[in-house]
Amino acid sequence: MTLLVPFDGSPLAGAALDRATRFADAFDESVVAVAVIPQNDASYARERGWIEAGEPFDRETIASRLRDRVHDRAPDAEFRAEHVSRGTHAGSIARVIRRVAREAGASTVFVGSTNAGRLVTTLSSVG
Question: In what order do the strands lie in the sheet with 30-38?
Fold first, then answer.
């Protein structure tokens, strides 16, 4: 089985990755972290701290930085960067996460929330 973590580099995504890693260690599972990166959307990337002010959008650089952040927290995790069109809404990003979860055979998706680290519950959807 695989544990999936949508990862955008935020503290909440980091907490979800930490939790998934602890579960993976306890249950001998693998972890896949997926970042969904809208194409050529520098403002979106800046809002999330993926690039600095004035720095040009480069999807490979962003993916590499996010991969490094994942591996700093979870060295054994697989990292996947998925790219979507610019101006993509949350529903499109959720569809990509669901697709990756199916492809990876994920048994559990760990989503960061304000209760990260204190609450474990099932979700009826990712959106």
Answer: 78-84, 30-38, 2-6, 106-109
Tell me the three state secondary structure of residue 9. Answer: coil
Q: How many CA atoms lie within 13 A of 29 on its CB side?
A: 21
Helix (H) or strand (E) holding 99: helix 90-104
Task: Burial-class residue 70 by CB neighbours within 10 Å (0-12, 13-18, 19+).
Answer: buried
7-55 pLDDT, tens digit each: 999 999 999 999 999 999 999 999 999 999 999 999 999 999 999 999 9
Strands (E), 24-77: 30-38
